[in-house]
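User
Take a look at the entry that follows and flag anything odd:
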Amino acid sequence: MSAPQQPEAVKLVASLFSGDDGLLGEAVQSLSERYGRADFISAPTPFSYTDYYIKEFGGSLIRRFVAFERLIRPESLPDVKIWTNALEKRLSAEGQRRVNIDPGYLAMAHLILATGKGYGHRPYLRDGIYADLTLIYRGKSFHSLPWTYPDYAGEEVTGMLLRIRGKYQMQLKENTVGPFDSLRTSGDETAHGKLDEPSVILS
């Protein structure tokens, strides 16, 4: 019989896109105020992998990825998704979303994204939120799965995630961030303050 053990803390990440880079900055600022300092923010890049969002957001979408220095409990992912859904609503105008936020977490073995849509490969968590196993890590690289979205399977994103994973691995080795430092189920999750300059920005 295997004895239950506490999981390692994981690194909170998020993908954001919008037609307005200023709104992306506002969303990242709000995420930082909630979950702590961002230690990785990608440069803005065009989001053109699908036309699924054109009707809702229009064309010429801009995307950024962000990762946060403080680690979270993996079981808190539904809380994050519910909060980011509320942030999307707060940033909407005339009932129309203007920013899309897809949170998830990076563990040593995989990338998990949160979603409100169930499917065969998406186990249910709680509160209407499912876990999407998006990428797995083996052989010093991230690998896609049959259901992985094409943008996450691309070398640009997997290479970026490898850099974030390297930072996360150093955090675990050096114990520079205590396990489960940022999220608590009590709802007192906010980290107040201005967004600090991230230590990594992709150009």
